[in-house]
Amino acid sequence: MESLKETGARHAGSHGRWYQDACGTAFAMELLGERWSMLVVRELLLGPRRFSDLRAALPGISAKVLTERLAGLETAGVLLRRRLPPPAASQVYELRAWGHAAEAPILALARWAAMSRGHNPQLPLSPVAFMLSLRAMLAPGPVSGAPLRVGFTVAGESFLAEFAGNALAVRRATAEELAGADASFTAEAPLPLLRVFYGHQPLDQAEQGGVRVAGDRAAAERFASMFALPEKLA
Amino acid sequence: MESLKETGARHAGSHGRWYQDACGTAFAMELLGERWSMLVVRELLLGPRRFSDLRAALPGISAKVLTERLAGLETAGVLLRRRLPPPAASQVYELRAWGHAAEAPILALARWAAMSRGHNPQLPLSPVAFMLSLRAMLAPGPVSGAPLRVGFTVAGESFLAEFAGNALAVRRATAEELAGADASFTAEAPLPLLRVFYGHQPLDQAEQGGVRVAGDRAAAERFASMFALPEKLA
DNA sequence: CAGAATCCCATTCGATACTG
DNA sequence: CAGTATCGAATGGGATTCTG
Fold first, then answer.
1. pLDDT in tens, A23-70
2. Which CATH superfamily is domain A108-224 in?
3. Residues of B whose CB is below 8 A from A39
């Protein structure tokens, strides 16, 4: 058993109230349980973001609260603040290794919530949240098949999804990388893409609704069929 | 109490402020993100509990807050309140199927928190939280081997852990069921057991520290060696 | 024991205004 | 753009009391 000294010291990043509970879940909720904290981490899971990026992705958060959450998460050791090299005089927030490991519980929560009736997928969704949903909702089991590289451009942000060996990796990408993909989806907003990936909407119908599909159409079809929302539970 | 006015069809169980976000993580945090909510669910994961059981397991929660959280979780569809048959005139709270499915994200959060330095395992721990930690920290990979049934009595509460096919099931048990187990651990509090399961403390040393080991000692040894805290991340 | 009802203070939120 | 400062309003939560 590790030493863990500190008689009565509080956890870093704690918000002044803390559970006296050794359970990891309790500790996790001290770190991520404040309003907005987990969504801030979510937005950082696909790479560093600036203050204004985060505000844009989290409609409803105020500058004050975002500032407070970023400071708390930094103190907690979840993320760090990095100043970009001179050309760009700006600052970005970036997850540390441990912060990045929060992806697993975050996706697990998303899968759980999606099993609820009452979950409303019509609300706004950030591009990052949409891309992460693909990782959350990749149908399990032997879906395998040939590797697949699929590009996404959603609301101006580009990503590359790489499927290989029954796992799906997602990262931000440049236009050049998207050119090398097997297929690409482009949309002004995530909502029409949700219809394709979780609503079983056929591709040609989606193209009426603001989705552009480029590249190998069969690959796009196969990729889209790999995702499904979990069944609802009572 | 919340009156649920408003035409806008808010999410059930929402606490009046809500994220406008279709992401499942956001919805999950609306349901479980309030202080104490997730820990209440945790305490129900191994079966129904009474109001006073929950208060005892969650030191620091007030009657008012517990009442509010139970009401909110019931409205959200996570749990339901059941009146026991006449002999016992009391009431219990019980997870619904969907509520029970929250075990996956709850354990994922626990694993994540355990990867942090700063996690203090010396704090008090409820018997349920300890038993769940076994499910969270079962070492992955081909640990297999013969099935194993191990009893636990912690602070007067008894459980049976059944390992088979690389999976570990845990449930409450009666004294008779414990008698049929391959081995049994008994302790007044979870802390000394933590030293055995996560601190690599040898059994005979643990027996100096308030742990009683009964039954097949080799089985007890093998079982204890199946668990490990995840490695810390920076 | 199980909870509802009150009281009341500390914290927190969001909006707005302001600054480098 | 990236925050800070301030302020009124809402909420949270602990303690206490009351009831069946």
1. 999 999 999 999 999 999 999 999 999 999 999 999 899 999 999 999
2. SCP2 sterol-binding domain (3.30.1050.10)
3. 19, 21, 23, 25-26, 29
